[in-house]
Design brief:
There is one protein chain. By secondary structure, the chain is mostly helical. It is built from six helices and no strands. α2 packs antiparallel against α3 and α3 runs parallel beside α5. The mean pLDDT is about 85.
């Protein structure tokens, strides 16, 4: 039972890879596989990509909760968990952009990717000098916002794959875009917090 949290985290990595490949295939970005795909297959790939993302996002909550509940925290889990989060978010952003031109998504998506890679670099530099960057409460909310907003954006980009009423699309898209921009702003704020923590720690 104590290995269950790490199994869930590993599952998140597998689902993230499946999601990205499914979106890339649906977008026609994978040679041979994507050649002459009928619309029904494209829609099925988009639906399964969204389902995989949602399941992977749910595991992000349960692996940490189970690790604490089962007293099964481990170094391997501490390494895998943030990797799983970043692979899932970055894979979803890239898959989302692969589905086609989405002007309202490009800027916040780029800002989120910029922050994720910058903080990863900060953690690596800090670790080399014995500096640890603890996860802040706002950073935890940031992850929740990112995952929720990305799930909604994937649905918007794959609207034809679902049987939602057409009259819902505009309102749903506006809400998804607004939440995605909010996630990008919170993401940048947490990035600035980590930058300041690293600066102070290295200066000391």
């Amino acid at each position: 039972m104590k290995s269950l949290p790490n199994i869930l985290t590993s599952l998140r990595l597998v689902l993230a890879l499946f999601m990205f490949l499914a979106l890339a295939a649906a977008a026609g970005a994978i040679p041979v596989i994507s050649d002459d795909l009928p619309p029904e297959t494209q829609f099925a790939l988009e639906r399964w990509a969204v389902y995989a993302f949602v399941i992977a996002a749910v595991t992000d909550f349960f692996d940490g909760w189970l690790a604490r509940r089962l007293n099964a925290t481990s170094v391997w889990g501490a390494i895998l968990d943030p990797i799983g989060d970043k692979v899932l978010v970055c894979g979803a952003v890239l898959g989302l952009l692969a589905l086609g031109p989405q002007p309202m998504v490009v800027v916040p998506a780029g800002l989120i990717l910029f922050r994720e890679f910058t903080v990863s670099a900060l953690r690596e530099v800090g670790a080399g000098r014995g500096v640890k960057l603890p996860v802040t409460l706002l950073a935890k909310w940031k992850t929740t916002l990112q995952l929720t907003a990305l799930a909604l954006e994937l649905v918007v980009a794959s609207w034809g794959a679902f049987s939602f009423p057409a009259e819902w699309q505009v309102g749903f898209a506006l809400f998804a875009h607004g939440l995605f921009w909010l996630a990008a702003v919170v993401t940048l704020i947490t990035g600035a917090q980590y930058w300041e923590q690293t600066r102070k720690a290295l200066g000391a």
